[in-house]
Amino acid sequence: MAEAAPAGAPSLFRKLAASLGPGLITAAVVLGPGSITMVSKAGAAHGYRLLWVILWAGLIMAAYTVMSARIGTVTDKSILSTVAEHYGRWLAVIMGLCSFAVCTAFQAGDNSGVGASMQTIAQGLWPEADGTMLTNVFSAGFTAVSLVLILTAPNLYKAIERLMTVLVGVMIVCFFANLFPAGPSLSGIAGGLVPSYRGAEDLKLIIPITATTFSVIACLYQGYMVQNKGWKLADYRKGVWDSVVGIAVLTGLSAVIMITAAAVLNPRKVEVVSAAAMAGQLEPLLGRTAQYLFCIGLWGASFSSLVANAIIGGGLLADSLGLGRRFEDRGVKACTVLVMIVGAVVAQFFGARPVALIAFAQGLTIVFVPVCALVILMLANNRKVMGEHTNGWIQNLLGAAGLATVTGLGAYQAWQFFASLAKPVGS
């Protein structure tokens, strides 16, 4: 009898896997090619000095992801349905339309990231091949694979969860494998965790790093994912734990990429113009293996975002219009397919030049997210919605700090935009 118990008891791995899922999907969608590009640029340009930005963005991202997961486990209705009931359908529709626009813009960057990462690997094996052609072929091919998955998977949530778990594992292995040969400075890392600010030039990286790490739209959808997983009030603690672990993975991977760039590229004053270019710049310094590992990690980040980002944008639009909220609902699948097709078309026509579109999406995100952040904070403190599970003072403190952060950065972005319009033409 004593020997039979261990055999029948679930392993530690199975317990862990059973309590994870939605948080890893959130981590996978947020860590895309845009995020990797920004943290790589920051590491190459400023060394370890902006590590604190990743830490701060990850902390407030975790706070909002936990809030959304709690709302999802406590309530039976979706978040935008709850918004429509308590604050008006008009607000839910605006949130759905803006989420759709942001996710569609980022989808083009995800397509390009998938294509560029595979193109870099393919040209290493086949140097005479046309790079633009390879990028477009791989981009279209993986979009087609994603569409088949979305339209044919009998249990789409479970299929996405398993796929994201594998891709997050690929990213962890690839990015950490490059960290140790890079030989980072421990004192530099410690110094980078202390907040510092050296003027407006820093904001050019602080804003996009914050926008791509603290994705309030992804936080908003966390409530949908815990409901798709089937978690209820009894799974309240699972939802919180899963959210914290998922965002810890996101923050850790972002920090590893910045540290690698700081250790390898910053001393040589190498400028990073894209995530794929970062991979190429590693080769002469750490060898061809480092380049391939980074490209495989970039592919994992891009492909995971390609799938999950489309589901988030399509799912929020569908729910705001009353077309469904679950992955398997026809309205959700139709809106998801629309995000994928528009993103793929933009990527095919603009090729390797969707940088302006990604910058537009980041700007739209940082301006729009204060609305979403405020709504999540309001719902998490609404006793009619949450009952006894409303926010505590620590959660509200972090929530207020996150709202102040994105509001301040959004106001700065808006001021910069209007200031540029006021400049005379040609100045």
How would you describe this protein?
The chain is mostly helical and 427 residues long. It has a single domain, classed as Up-down Bundle (Amino acid/polyamine transporter I), CATH 1.20.1740.10. 81% of the residues lie in helices and 0% in strands. It has 19 helices and no strands. The chain has helices spanning 4-8, 12-18, 22-30, 33-46, 51-74, 79-87, 89-125, 131-152, 156-182, 186-192, 200-213, 216-229, 236-264, 275-286, 288-320, 330-350, 355-380, 383-386, 393-422. Helix 17 (355-380) packs antiparallel against helix 19. The longest helix has 37 residues, at 89-125.
What is the topological layout?
Elements: H1 4-8, H2 12-18, H3 22-30, H4 33-46, H5 51-74, H6 79-87, H7 89-125, H8 131-152, H9 156-182, H10 186-192, H11 200-213, H12 216-229, H13 236-264, H14 275-286, H15 288-320, H16 330-350, H17 355-380, H18 383-386, H19 393-422
